[in-house]
Specification:
single chain, Neuraminidase, mainly beta
Length: about 375
Amino acid sequence: MVSLAIAVLAGGCSGTGSSTISNPGPSGAVPSLSLTTVVTGLSNPVDFQQPNDGTNRFFVVEQAGTIRIIQAGAVLPAAFLDIRSRVLFGGEQGLLGLAFHPNYRQNRLFYVNYVRNSSGQTQTIIAEYSASSLDPNQVDPSSEHVLLTVNQPFSNHKGGQLVFGADGFLYIGLGDGGSGGDPLGNGQSLQTLLGKMLRIDVNATSGAQQYGIPPDNPFAAGGGLPEIWAYGLRNPWRFSFDRGNTNRLFCADVGQDRFEEIDLIVRGGNFGWNVMEGAHCFNPSSGCNMAGLILPIAEYDHSEGDAVIGGYVYRGTAIPQLVGAYLMGDFGSGRIWILQETSPGTFTRSLGLMTGRNISSFGQDLAGEVYVVDYSGSVLRLTSP
């Protein structure tokens, strides 16, 4: 289903920025990569997570509304969570993201991002669930506690990722709400949560809100909605923090019909949509005012792929040559690229592997090894032949 993370409907003129985007590097500098199958038989998998709970289990999100457990190299027969009756599934909608609380081992709490239909209104839901104290492989759907509800104007561009930062706060990526070209201007508006990276405190409440606002959020004191951490995003489809000493937040933002991009998300940053698509003017006739915009650290056009899939900075041990490099992919072409910071602020992109897969997501285990999620139903581990 090629529409999963793709919204290819229009495009743009070149600009300049503080980061340098270079062409793919020499093939001789790229380590040999391969994929080793972990499991098959999944249904439309879109996310892969491992909690730090000592059980060595992996959890895979299936878009229709289930979460499955991989244990001892096999998919367990029963779903960990089954909320198919609540989830609006189809195209870019469904159960899209999973994040385990940093203290999951003690409190059994985790968070999901899904799309539902409520009396004809499409909504993004950020909800908390609790795993059973009697059976760690089961969740009672009635344990749901909805933290955040966001009305959606169209059926595409939902984002979907949830990630806890080292600061203990939950980061949430939301797309611009859909259609083509951001007709409602959501990306640049600070009065909507659409087209944003959000940051909330799940361990607190604030008035009627079921979460707290970190006091250092850029608009916590006004000027924009207090949940907003960064803005100007089109459809952030997978983002991750580098577990190394940089702790930088890498985000893949799916483009329209010309350019795909990778951004380094920073507090209060404006990443350009819909003024820019990648490092290019989206609509040159509008004047393309780039003042204050942060351009991507990497991009590619649709001759190489059609929907960027964000990955991870490699921090494993199985492929030493990859340590410190960011891995990214493309849904339609199945390519995996290696993004290396060759000098401060300059990133070089090299082709790592042609997989022949519909890559819907990446995953990272506690040891820092990286996994590839194939939308056709497989999870594979990135290895070196």
